[in-house]
Amino acid sequence: MLGSVFALTSAFLWACAVILFKKSGDVFSPVSLNIYKSIVALVLVSLTMVILDIPFIPDKPINDWLLLAVSGFIGITLADLFFFMALNSLGAGIVAIVECLYLPSVIFFSFILLKEDLSLGAIIGGLLVLTAVFVGSMRTKKTLDKTQESKSPLPGIIIGCLSMIFLAAGIVMIKDLLERTDVFWATLVRVAAATVSLLVLILFHPKRRQYFRELKFSRAWLTALPASVIGNYLALLCWVAGMKYTTASRAAILNQMSSIFIFILAAVFLKEKITINKTIAILLALTGAALTIFSN
Question: Which of 137, 138, 133 is nearest to 105 (CA)?
Answer without folding.
Answer: 133
